Amino acid sequence: MNTVDTHMTQPTAASASQRGFWTRIVLVTLACAVAYATPGLLPNLFYVHIANLTLVSGIFALSLWIIYCVGQLSLGHAAFAGLGAYASALLSLRLGVPPFVSLLIAGIGTATVAALLGAVILRLRGVYFVLVTFLFGQMFTLMVLNWQSLTNGANGLISIPPITILGLSFGPRPVFFYFAFVVFLLVLLFTWALSRSTFGRAFDSIEQNIDLAESCGIDTSKYQIIAFTIGSGIAGVGGAMIAHYIRYISPDTFTFHNSVAYITMLVVGGRSLFWGAVVGAAFLTPLPEFLRDFAGLQHIIYGAIMILVLRLLPGGLISLPATLRRIGGGK
Amino acid sequence: MTTLLDVCGVSKRFGGLMALKDVNLTVSDNEIVGLIGPNGAGKTTCFNVISGTFPPSEGQITFDGHNIVGMRPNRIVRIGLARTYQATSVFPTATVLENVVRGAFTRSEDTFLGSLLGLAASRDADARLRRHCMEILDRVGIAHVHDHLAGALPYGFQRRLGVAIALASDPKVIMMDEPAAGLNPEESHAMGQLIREIHEAGGTSVLIVEHDMRLVMGICHRLIVLDHGEQIAAGSPEEIRNNRQVIEAYLGTEAI
Lengths: 331, 256
Ligand SMILES: Nc1ncnc2c1ncn2[C@@H]1O[C@H](COP(=O)(O)OP(=O)(O)O)[C@@H](O)[C@H]1O
Ligand SMILES: [Mg+2]
Prior knowledge:
The structure holds 2 protein chains of 2 kinds. Chain A contains 16 helices and 2 strands. The two termini of chain A are about 25 Å apart. Chain A is globular and about 55 Å long. Chain A is an all-alpha fold. In chain B, α3 (about 95-105) runs parallel beside α6 (about 155-170). In chain B, the strands form 2 sheets. A 6-stranded mixed beta sheet of chain B has the order 6-7-8-3-9-10, sandwiched between helices. In chain B, strands 2-1-4-5 form a 4-stranded antiparallel beta sheet, covered by helices on one side. Chain B folds into 2 domains: about 1-80 and about 170-255, Rossmann fold; about 90-170, no CATH class. Chain B has 10 helices and 10 strands. Chain B starts with a strand and ends in a 5-residue tail after the last helix. Helix content of chain B is about 40%, strand content about 25%. Chain B is of the alpha/beta class. The interface between A and B is large, with 33 and 46 residues. The site of magnesium ion has 3 residues of chain B, from α1. Adenosine-5'-diphosphate binds near residues 42 and 43 of chain B.
């Protein structure tokens, strides 16, 4: 969260922050205008579908970034997405809860599970935390497979109703695009604001030097749990969006491979800024769709891209302009 | 003088190793107390036990009327007991000023919601905090590099930044673990000046671990000597300097 540093170094930054405010309004408006036209401009529904998946991937990557901000790497992120997906699907299928409401409940439910789990496992750091989140992901898959009466096991849940708000169905691909875009934008703005808030300051302190953060009076356990809860809760909402969009989920929808894919997005995009998550999702989500012919190679290609980026662009794709400028400037 | 920090009968075992054996020490308000002894004597362990990094195996520790055994380090800082580290410890990729602002985290009037929404009140609170932290940087003499990244600072400045971060929490007692380690004689002397200034200007008490005897003898009101986890002497610098046991265990025979 280096944004914290560059912002307001001088106490006299009031007018600059005013200007920044209007810049952001203009940017958001511009993004909305582009988004409004996008479904109509794309050549066919396949592209709209990819755009939709990219937006949801962006939500997953951003939410994982929030957890990464306290220096923790979760290999169970897809399991939280799956938890949200199953919760929302079951609420709407079994209890008739309207899909938009079920989506919100799923998000809160997933966040609650994350808070409880986080309170136990966030004492662990580094590879130990990674391992435990990996196990959590595996446990989730096993549970969904075996709790047949609730989840329908390996067959998955079918005919999940689409999201409907005030009679408008977000089932069709071009319409869902708008829903996904609005949620993505909200998550993006929230993540940005969070990174500049007092929480963001605590998160970054923990990431950089957890012992010193504790010595600064920062309750490092509490803030790690908060980051994990917010990130996982947002992943739950993203998972629920997938459930009501694809309208079919199974244990295969959210696996370990998805968790790895989200991490790849962060690394490839650039871990140091939240924009990196967006760039990574935008770069890597369409890739497998266009590489359909090499289906088995997808993970290899992901791995190769990750290694290449780590070797050549440790700051991720987001650092490409700066790197090019440096090379161009001959420095 | 009222006692702020009271360490009573504290022992710390690491497996078979007794790192601290029945240590007793107090720090009163307006006092500079030195904790000295050879390497491996248990000085850093003593700081870690007091600051809540790990609990003592036995004994009581109270601070300003609170029993702080078992209290998390962040709570201990918030009731006014701050520390610095033996190795330099900063937030490397944050600016120097931002480092100090983080040290003042719990003193900030900023609120989460205010800062999330970017409210004017929150910006004002942040600006006030930054001004306050600039003053602290000024006190420790590194205000001119406030916008540099902490990790890129020269070693001597990083040591001062460590002190500034601890000061920012507005402590009643500050524990410093070898603040002059690795500094040249002039820098070391300046660090001694700084500690005395901190003590005089803010009325902050100091518990200091340091090997530079000139510095320690020059600024401390009282000294406590540890050897192999045991307290072998306590008293004024004058008394310690002439204590036979201390000379044998630590100071050596040379006159200081
Ligand atoms: N976390 C720990 N686990 C095990 N042994 C430790 C630990 N911390 C310190 N020790 C041991 O305790 C003894 C005292 O160390 P320390 O407090 O660092 O000494 P000093 O700061 O006086 O040089 C040493 O023998 C050291 O190896
Ligand atoms: Mg030590």
